Amino acid sequence: MSEILNRVSADSFLETPIPEESLQNILNAGRIAPSAKNRQPWRFIVLRDPLLKEKIKDSAYGDERFSQAPVAIAACTTNIGYRMPNGELSYPVDLSFAISFMMLQAEHEGLGSSVITTYREDEIKKILTIPYSMKVLMMLLIGKTEKNGDREIRLPMDRVVSFDHW
Length: 166
Ligand SMILES: Cc1cc2nc3c(=O)[nH]c(=O)nc-3n(C[C@H](O)[C@H](O)[C@H](O)COP(=O)(O)O)c2cc1C
Prior knowledge:
Blueprint: H1 2-6, H2 20-31, E1 42-47, H3 50-59, H4 65-68, E2 71-77, H5 91-108, E3 112-116, H6 121-127, E4 136-143, H7 157-160
Antiparallel strand pairs: 1-2, 2-4, 3-4
The structure holds flavin mononucleotide.
């Protein structure tokens, strides 16, 4: 699938607005992503206001991409306690699926994206009035890009896959 093969994290964005239909398609891709027991423990806060993005940028150690990207999405939890049958917390997994779907849809729309986790979460929660008990698991920046960076090297197949035993 070309979206998977071509996607790379954007190092920079153009400030050009993105089409509303593309944004809706991206948000819908996250909305319909799978989650444990279909609990959908997420709230996606879409940020387009330049002043708001500037505030978030300050909490993200001045990452310029918050000024550049026309859209930033804060991927938040609505439940943090639920564990899957294997004992692991479900929200990091659930939200990661949703964000992955959004990234691939963004690629499909001809847009770049970048996951950001380098921020002071407590400050972002205050700015976006997120309840104290909830979390901002990651931010996703979306926008047009001038050029894609090179693909970062991945481990070879035989290092990451084995058959029938470890
Ligand atoms: C869970 C997660 C957290 C990440 N956090 C950041 C981040 O805080 N800042 C950043 O610039 N990139 C961040 N990234 C992007 C990764 O560095 C990037 O995906 C990785 O280097 C592979 O490059 P590629 O996305 O271009 O294939 C994050 C990616 C993931 C999946």
